[in-house]
Amino acid sequence: MPLMNARRAKRRGPRRFTSRDLAVIGVLLGIPVLLDLALIWGPTLASIGLSFTSWDGIGDIHWVGIDNYKTLFTDYPPFWPAVRNNLLWVAFLGLVATPFGLLLAVLLDKGVRFSRFYQSTLYMPVVLSLAIVGFIAQLVFSRDQGALNAILANKNDPVDWLGDPDLNIWMVLLAAAWRHTGYVMILYLAGLKSVDPSLKEAAAIDGASETQTFFRVVLPTLRPVNIIVGVITVIEALRAFDIVYAINHGRNGLELLSVLVTDNIIGEASRIGFGSAIAVVLLTVSLGFIVTYLVQELRGGKKG
């Protein structure tokens, strides 16, 4: 009987799609592709084209070549502070918030008491938008009514955590890291749950310490998670906008490229061409980070 079934299956060959099947596949694939082209790649290509023009959104579009980029790099004071803050955002999330999220994931993976409660508490900020996190930061770091100055009892000489341009970027980074840490923790916790326990047992039998087991056995198996976390960290850092805009509209030390794009495109003196040039710079920086990181990680995965 099994032999007859095998012969019948062999005679039938591969299943042929009917016209109805092709229509369903075309709709299921075509609609997402069209939406992606219309909402992502269409505006992206339009921004690249507009970055070489001068346009206020109403009048005629004038071709100016690379004049927008020349002005941006040489005669636009907020640009370089915004670049510095964006790079600082990437470094802080990547070197502080992400390792801390990994540490929390490792501790929770050991099965500590009340781990479910800790997971829920640490993940809770992730469900909040960055705008809400910005309002919470104002409640904590406000000069006159903030919780931090109240705890420090600085009534006579309160610290202006959000008004001082030398301090406010660090306070905002702490608030952003508070949200980012929970996200990273959940991703790494899921990755740690999928690690084969026999690998840890084999390392322990070979005499490896717990630290050696983690860095030489567990962490290399988390390479796919590392790629995801790295890409998410860069994207979160470079697209940051809500939190600084909620605090002081991205000014006085909190300048970001995303804020400059908004100010130039939606501001009173709308300069869509110039704002598009800033958006193209932000896109280039984002792709540079992400492509470089992915290439290195994928090459490392093949060698491993």
UniProtKB/TrEMBL annotation:
The chain crosses the membrane at residues 21-41, 87-108, 120-141, 169-190, 272-295. It is found in: Cell membrane. PROSITE patterns: ABC_TM1 (PS50928). Residues 83-295 form the ABC transmembrane type-1 domain. It is a multi-pass membrane protein. InterPro entries: ABC_transporter_permease, MetI-like, MetI-like_sf. Gene3D superfamilies: MetI-like. This is Sugar ABC transporter permease. CDD domains: TM_PBP2. Keywords: Cell membrane, Membrane, Transmembrane, Transmembrane helix, Transport. Belongs to the binding-protein-dependent transport system permease family. SUPFAM superfamilies: MetI-like (SSF161098).
